[in-house]
User: Fold these one by one.
Assistant:
Number 1:
Amino acid sequence: MIGAIPRGLQYDSRYCAKYVQNFGANTAANVNNMDRQGYNAGSDVNGDIWRQCYFGLGANLDYIIKSGTEKAQWDYVGAAQVLKAMMFQYTTDYHGEIIFTEAFKENQAFFKYDDQEVIYAGIDSILRLAINNLSRNDASPTSTRLAKEIISIVAIRHAGSNSPGDF
């Protein structure tokens, strides 16, 4: 899931790069996809960032936030909020107006595209929530819990071995 973020940025940059003068080409095969708002029939050219935001990460991050909130795993909640804000930031920077306030609503076929002012304010709010959640200490942090689990696994493996280096 996380590895797809830089891949999406690199894939889509191949097509918009000529407009920011990173690359240049003027061959017949060089279709002006960005001139057509990124759409090329029968292709997902310029669609990787969009796909990562809405399909790759989107609902999965909402699940992590919901599940982490129910379990008081504030570090998971905060990390998922940071990723969610980052993906909306990348997507709006790249595509302009995007689906933000109605994103991930179930049983809906048509969505409202929000202005970037609304999106940037929303991203700021998400990041403020993330900072708050990452700063919380009213429940046992997940890293401590994970560290205890790792120590337990190592102890169990070590107890069953014949020599100290036999893991």
Number 2:
Amino acid sequence: MKRYIPFIIIALLFMNACTDKDGNTLPACGVNNPTEDLAWLKAEIDRRNETLTKDMKYCYIVQAELNGQDVFIYEDCNPLINKAIFILTCEGTEIDTQESALAFEQLKNKTIIWKGNDFACQINL
């Protein structure tokens, strides 16, 4: 049994060290934790946590930078529908991406800051 202990320890370290950039809320918009400190974003996350529907397993929220500004994106990865994706400013105001189709290509430092417990997608940011 003792000879398995090093392998078990290494496996546990690997499991804790691996990340796909999920849940890594970074300081943004002048606050340390935007998911808690931006009232509109916290309210949206609370609403999503309380309203768990069948389709919610495809929804997630991304924090990113667009042209030097912190932004938040409501995204969806449902393979059966083409849902509108919203980019929001620090104030929770939607950025009009209809006029700037390049906005999505200009997003940098993307990280998932919220997804449902039964999230169904593999996302590569």
